[in-house]
Amino acid sequence: MIDQSTTATKQKVYHIDGMDDVVGEYETEEELAVLDDFQASRFLANYHEALLSNDRAALDLMVADHTVYVAERFGKGEKQSKADFLGTFGEKRVVKVNKHTAEGTTLRAYGGNMVLKVGISNSDIVYKGLPSKGPRIFAIAYMKLDGRWQCVVHTIMDFDGTYI
């Protein structure tokens, strides 16, 4: 017999700098504990500040060594390693983040050490000399590794705001 029961999804709202209220979705108390731990770490607020201040050293601590950044910018795809990503900050400053914002953001816990964030970015950035104000759709995964939360996968793409 197939179990067709479903567990009710609950929600908790978190306030994070630079974002509209973020909704954490969970079904179990264990998932809620992961979301609360992630929020208590202030990872997203610290990442927000590091982007705005071009703080390469802070970003280095928040990005896992084998992370992958996948982006679509101005109709072209891009895949970056941690070193590639960090190389766009600091003195080189290939990316200038003027405003870092997100809306419609949802967090979802997976297992005891992973959080997935999805939403829409309307950040105002200059990338390789070209302005980009969004909207962009993103899915970003974070894992607690070596006792701290780190970005392990970061995907973002420009889109026209229309869902099909």
Summary keywords:
164 residues; alpha+beta; Nuclear Transport Factor 2, Chain: A; 8-stranded mixed beta sheet; 4 helices; 46% strand; globular
Structure description:
- The chain is 21% helix and 46% strand.
- It is of the alpha+beta class and 164 residues long.
- The chain has one domain (10-158): Roll (Nuclear Transport Factor 2, Chain: A).
- The longest helix has 12 residues, at 29-40.
- The mean pLDDT is 89.
Record the SSE blueprint.
Elements: E1 10-14, E2 22-26, H1 29-40, H2 43-53, H3 56-62, E3 63-73, E4 76-80, H4 82-86, E5 95-99, E6 102-110, E7 114-121, E8 124-127, E9 130-132, E10 136-145, E11 148-158
Parallel strand pairs: 2-6, 3-11
Antiparallel strand pairs: 1-2, 3-4, 5-8, 6-7, 7-10, 8-9, 10-11
CATH topology: Nuclear Transport Factor 2, Chain: A
Largest sheet report? 8 strands, mixed
Q: Count the domains.
A: 1
What series of H and E elements makes up the topology?
EEHHHEEHEEEEEEE
Known CATH architecture: Roll
C-alpha-based Rg, rounded? 16 Å
The computed structural class is alpha+beta
- Compute the separation of the termini in Å: 35 Å
CATH class: Alpha Beta
* Number of continuous helical runs: 4
Low-confidence stretches: none
Q: What percentage of residues falls in helices of 4 or more residues? A: 10-25%
General shape: globular
Mean pLDDT: 89
Strand content: over 45%
The count of β-strands is: 11
Spatial sequence of strands, sheet with the most strands: 1-2-6-7-10-11-3-4
